[in-house]
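Every protein is a chain of amino acids, and every chain bends into a shape of its own. The fold becomes a row of whole numbers, each drawn from a learned catalogue of backbone shapes. The protein below has been through that process, and both of its lines are reproduced in full.
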Amino acid sequence: MEYRLKSYVADFRNRFGYNSTEPIGFNSLLQKLDILSIFKPLSEDFSGLSIKDGDSRFMLVNCNHSVGRQNFTIGHELYHLFYDKDFTPHKCQTGLFPRKNGNERMADIFASYLLLPEEGILQLISDEELGKDQIKLATLLRIEQTYGSSRAALLNQLSKMDLASKSFVEKYSIQIKTGARQHGYSVDLYEYTGAKAILGTFGSLANKLFEKDQISESHYQELMLSIGIDVNEIVSDEEN
């Protein structure tokens, strides 16, 4: 499965003009791909969702999560939009790598390789640190700042590469912003961004899918509520 996902990542990078190790600016990528995008405060367990209808694509991302986590969510949703053959719009909680949900696990793995290419990580690690639990905090910071990654996503990737043990992960999962400040980095990557403007016509796309019977009425209502629109209130206002 992972080899197939790595091939998807290679295909995606090649298709849209990125080499195998190049950091991706995910917000500019969304604009480049003409994906209608909303960054909106959502509940903690709601990372994002995506919708596609023909050539039209939409993405919703939780801006109450850190920038690094948002980038991972974007990568996750890109898998659904471009490579998920059984795609149906649904609420996603990303970064869990669930074993009982194949599509969500595949989307998380795709996101991890897209966001943090193994070859790129290795290029940023010195020879003396290239061993299990040998990577220093300064190098962790350099990698995650280069690739716009959360610490959790980076540590997970290093674990898969057999460069980080459970104790190493636990050690470097705390005081992340303090460490960044001590090494002279901005902490913007580790903080949430707040609400951003709605880009595109998400409501129109959701309504179109509902009218074509591609999503249920309850799903349509849920999607509209995600951008702050209560369909039942609209109907009630029309009747009064």
In short: Residues 1-200 form one domain. Residues 79 and 150 are 19 Å apart (CA to CA). The chain has two domains: 1-200, 203-240.
